[in-house]
Amino acid sequence: LECSTASYSYRNLADRIPPGSRLTQPSILPSRLAITMTMRSLFSNHSHYVETFQVFLKKSTEHQCMLDFIHKKLPQLISSISNGKTDINVLSIGGGSGEIDLEILARLQSEYPGVIIHTDVIEPNAEQINSYKECVAKAPDLKNIKFTWHKETSLEYENRIMDSKEMGKWNFIHMIQMLYYVKDMPATIRFFHSLLEPGAKLLIILVSGRSGWAKLWRKYGPRLPSNDLCLYISSADVEDMLDGSGLKYQTYELPSDMDITDCFTEGSKTGELLLDFLTETYNFSKTAPLDLKNELIEDLKKPEYGERRGDNYFFNNTLSAIMIEHQNGETYLQT
User: Fold this and answer.
1) What is the pTM for the complete model shown?
2) Could you say which residues bind substrate here (predicted)?
């Protein structure tokens, strides 16, 4: 979990992904049912969600850590995906309004000068598609890049492709901060891996299994509002799935943090918005039971969730980039 209201619309999905069960839906004990019913999912109020996300972007280095990876590491990872062809096919799943996509495409252009790059963007939010098109219109030097936008979810795309039996092949597929919002993570990865050309690559970026997010979800997931729009998964879950498949992949850590100092100032508007974003709860500070609120706030100060630097506290927002390679003769293990 861009050029418009949110820097990355893959987190901006209240009206994007059809509701579905979580990969590992936390069971809510009867004794906790009354507690959780007093709280609402953050995604129940789209405008409030966008407000919390804007604060998250302002207080975190998420944007910068992705750009660092794209600029410094990605070029060498995509240096062999074309197989000498004069065209490259790129598939963006959850492209949002295109800011990160255009950074990736710029690296592809630099690596393959003069090559035509065909880019298909799967994005269910019409506003984000319009923003993406505006970004393209303003961007220089895109003459060799051809765009096609599809207003649909990843599952709708999968169903359309399966129904049409037109299994086009791709040189590069990327899924950035979107796997939280699919019904079946393993099946989604299996499907898109099956669309890769030999030598092609699939890039997945999501929160690291060693991040504060993973620890927060494990401990507090059952005590927070149930939300069928979002899976509590991290890179550790994806790696476990890939290890069982026998696929060749590499994981790269993208260090990132978020300044959460305001969370510890009672009445701070910024702190309340950050707590809403961290817990995915609408008005967490006002609706959460006092014992839950106090416990979570104290936990956020602990080293397993981040670090203290002077008077400031920083939440561990580290991401993982997982690059999966399709090798010649490789078949995917269906599990």
Assistant:
1) 0.85
2) 62, 317
